[in-house]
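Appendix B. Worked example

We walk through a single record from start to finish. Start with the input: the chain for Transcriptional regulator, BadM/Rrf2 family, Magnetococcus marinus, length 157.
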Amino acid sequence: MRLTTRGRYAVTAMLDLAQHANRGPVTLAEISNRQQISLSYLEQLFAKLRRGGLVGSVRGPGGGYQLDRGAEQISVAAIIRAVDEPIHATSCKDKGTEGCRRDTRCITHDLWARLGEHIYHYLESVSLAQLMRDGSALAMLGEAEVDHTEMVLRGPH
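Next comes the structure step. The output line below is what the pipeline stores for this chain.
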């Protein structure tokens, strides 16, 4: 599976939006600064995410974007689909069921097609809420490892 920057940036931006949703609408400039993603690129992505029903915009002072559904209800696959990112592992042409890179179906087509299905199902099973929980758990684990390392280096007091 080839996931382009469009898919990766869309997931990153949506996760950032979900993490900061409790403060009200989030501006694309804020996401751009935090995630180092071009503002103009975010504008393109969020237009697609809005059309996909994942985010809504709030106009005026204090405006920005917010999730249109709860973070638990938005899967990584839904984000990737919304920005027109294909979720498959084959190199098949878009037209017809035949012809991977050639005019005939390649001998490993079924292998890659099944892998693509597993990837899709996995991404469908992962929500923004899970990513937020996992990120928090990893951050806490990282802090615990740092504390433990410092204790080992300094020794007991």
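Two observations about the output. Residues 87 and 120 are 6 Å apart (CA to CA). Residues 88-125 form one domain.
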